[in-house]
Amino acid sequence: MTDHRTQVEEMIADYRRSSQRLSEVDEELASIEETAADERGDVSVTVGSGGALRRVWLAEQVYRTHSPDELGGLIVRLSATATARIAERTDAVLATVLPSGSDPAALRADSTTTAASAVTGVSVPDGSAVADNGPRNSAAEPEQDESLEPRSWLRDVGAAERDR
Questions:
Q1: Residue 50 pLDDT
Q2: CA 122 to CA 112: how far, in whole Å?
Q3: Which residues share a beta bridge with 48?
Q4: Cα torsion angle, 125, 117, 71, 33, sign
Q5: d(CA 13, CA 37)
Q6: Residue 109 CA to chain centroid, in angstroms?
Q7: pLDDT score recorded for residue 15
Q8: Beta strands of the chain (E only): which ranges?
Q9: Helix, strand, coil shares, percent, the chain, to 5
Q10: For residues 32 and 80, is the Cβ–Cβ distance under 8 A?
Q11: Per-residue pLDDT tens for 74-129?
């Protein structure tokens, strides 16, 4: 009986070590950030874990040296560069806890298949320039909404809870 007790204690200790390591990896992944900047240092974009845009910095003169369309495209390209670096760093962290021979990129790709699509362009508020060719609603075809009442994600969550 003592051998079983020792085995169980070892299994519990292994579980605790694994759990602690996974918590550390989770914290490490959450703290990853990458910044990409243009050649002149006029524009920089910081992206966090999972590709979340955290910061865009623009030098004061950037509005004189870039058109709105150029600036939007540059921000999108810099975001993509920073996001690619995030992916590389994420893979390196995941590789430390995956079995040897595992492909961290494949695991990461499987977990992001339901993520929102990447930004493909930027539209300027006055409508003078648009950096993407995605579908757009014309003034004659406004976007349809089932209600004109203001919407709130908090109210929507509450309604979903009541409907259960």
A1: 81
A2: 23
A3: 33
A4: positive
A5: 46
A6: 13
A7: 93
A8: 33-37, 43-48, 53-58
A9: 50, 10, 35
A10: no
A11: 999 999 999 999 999 999 998 888 888 888 888 777 665 544 444 444 444 444 33
**Cβ-proximal residues to 64 (8 Å cutoff; 6+ apart), any chain:** none
Q: What is the mean pLDDT of the chain?
A: 76
Token representation of residue 40: 């002149």
Question: Which amino acid, 153?
Answer: W
Residue 130 and residue 145: Cα distance in Å, rounded? 24
Q: In Å, what is the CA distance from 24 to each residue of 13, 107, 147?
A: 17, 18, 45
Instruction: For the beta carbon of residue 87, count every other beta carbon within 10 angstroms.
Output: 19
Residue 127: count other Cβ atoms within 10 Å of its Cβ: 7
Other CB atoms within a 10 A radius of the CB of residue 83 amount to 19
